[in-house]
What does this fold into?
Amino acid sequence: MKKRQIFQVKFSINYKSGIKWVSIKDVYALSEYGAVQMIKWLKSDYDISIISINSLGYVGNPIYEDKNTLGDF
It folds into this structure.
């Protein structure tokens, strides 16, 4: 069993004009990889680059890892 973590993910959206828009989003996932996949899914219409990922701590009760749920891997 694992506990979800809250990750603060800093990413940039890269526009074709060369402009980069930087944003920070908090996501819940079991691992850094799951947090990155969550951001990529949320911003799937854009070309994004991950700048940094910080764990802010554990949240919720322990769960069984589910490879079918976004962020739970």
Remarks:
- The longest strand covers residues 48-63.
- The domain at 2-61 is CATH 3.10.20 (Ubiquitin-like (UB roll)).
- The mean pLDDT is 92.
